[in-house]
Design brief:
This protein has 12 helices and 13 strands. The chain has 377 residues and is of the alpha+beta class. It folds into 2 domains: 80 residues, no CATH class; 258 residues, Sandwich (Jelly Rolls). Strands 1, 2, 3, 4, 5, 6, 7, 8, 9, 10, 11, 12 and 13 form a 13-stranded antiparallel beta sheet that branches. A hairpin with a 2-residue loop joins strand 2 and strand 3. The chain is globular, with a radius of gyration of 21 Å. About 25% of the residues have low confidence.
């Protein structure tokens, strides 16, 4: 059992797709769900874990529809009413966590952990962070690891240029169901609310589009130069990036393979700490303009083995547009002439990040363009 594990749940989801389809025509219910009025009539009191949803159903419905329709084929092609119903279904799934499968983690224990470790988290150096071992239910974590798609499978974005050599998958319809379930839990209101307590950041919101996140995988020889993350969501100008949650799914993992996440001093003077990506370890840290991190040394794991992680990013919605900056790669002391190359590509990434947000293009397109510029395979 993981640190926040729970026993299996035999509850069923509040709605099924078929029920949503049938009920869509009920305009009275649809209006109630969409506006959030008299919400208690449509959420049974015996349904566990939905008390908070009753209080904010209208906002949850609107926000879920706004964020999920971007990636969900059903929502994109359905009439407005069915879109809203389906968004509610997704929101309820997030609250209910699972139907007949084992819950990913105990949210009550997670909440208690956040309360107990908040001050320590904020005091940690070089910037606020936490390392949590046995994070997910151990069996669920193992199922996720075994279901992890191969780099050769469809949908992976191949970040293969000077500053990084890794692979990412953020298309939810291509992510295996066990991992989707885990992501749903880690993006749920209960989890995010507790995450806000741990970090001391109010109003955190998840990113269901998984922009830049989702699944990450690094093969032998792969790396990610030291950097500070992009500061604003590419498609939501007022969304300021605040927190990263990384869950590692590597078993076995030997220290000789490398792949440690390095946390660097804010002035890039030295590496302040290294964290091994061992199985079921979660690393949480604030993402500020100078929270530098990465895995700059090429991976030395055996051929056929990869470094796997779930990467989720959390934002706050600001009243005014925050400072927007692309991923800021930095050279380490002693990098020599490589420092010039890192600076040049960082400048190129900043330019294309601006174009990406302006045109609404994807990471896949940007990555392909950079690969052509630097003639990387």
């Amino acid at each position: 059992m993981g640190m926040f594990a729970r026993k299996k749940s035999n509850r069923i989801a509040l709605f099924s797709i078929q029920e949503i389809d049938k009920t869509w025509l009920n305009t009275k219910v649809l209006k109630t769900i969409c506006t959030g009025t008299d919400a208690k009539a449509f959420i049974p009191s015996w349904q566990p874990g939905l008390q908070d949803t009753r209080k904010s159903l209208g906002w949850r419905c609107w926000n879920a529809r706004r964020m999920f329709t971007r990636n969900d084929k059903l929502c994109r092609s359905a009439p407005l009413g069915l879109q809203c119903w389906h968004s509610c279904y997704l929101a309820f799934q997030s609250d209910n966590m699972s139907t007949t499968t084992e819950r990913v983690l105990d949210l009550n224990m997670w909440h208690a952990y956040c309360l107990a470790h908040s001050e320590r988290y904020k005091a940690n150096k070089p910037y606020p962070h936490a390392v949590v071992d046995d994070f997910l239910d151990r069996e669920s974590a193992r199922v996720c690891m075994e279901a992890f798609p191969k780099v050769e499978d469809a949908g992976w974005i191949h970040y293969l240029h000077l500053n990084e050599k890794k692979h990412g998958l953020n298309k939810m319809d291509l992510i295996p169901e066990p991992i989707r379930d885990a992501i749903a839990v880690l993006n749920s209101p209960q989890f995010v609310q507790s995450l806000g307590i741990l970090t001391g950041i109010d109003g955190l919101i998840p990113d269901p589009s998984l922009e830049g996140g989702g699944l990450h995988q690094t093969q032998t020889g792969g790396y990610l130069n030291i950097h500070a993350d992009f500061t604003v969501h590419p498609h939501h100008r007022n969304w300021r990036r605040r927190v990263n949650v990384l869950v590692y799914l590597n078993d076995p993992w030997d220290e000789s393979y490398g792949g440690q996440l390095e946390l660097w001093e804010r002035d890039m003077s030295a590496c302040a700490g290294r964290i091994s990506p061992v199985f079921n370890r979660c690393v949480i840290f604030n993402t500020d303009e100078d929270s530098y991190h990465g895995l700059p040394e090429p991976l030395k794991c055996p051929a056929g083995m990869t470094r796997k992680s779930i990467a989720l990013y959390y934002f706050t919605e600001e009243r005014s547009a925050p400072l927007k900056r692309a991923t800021n790669y930095r050279a380490r002391p002693g990098d020599g002439f490589k420092s010039v190359l890192i600076w040049l590509e960082t400048s190129a990434i900043a330019l294309y990040n601006h174009i990406k947000g302006w045109l609404g293009i994807s990471d896949d397109a940007v990555s392909s363009l950079l690969n052509k510029i630097f003639k990387r395979k």
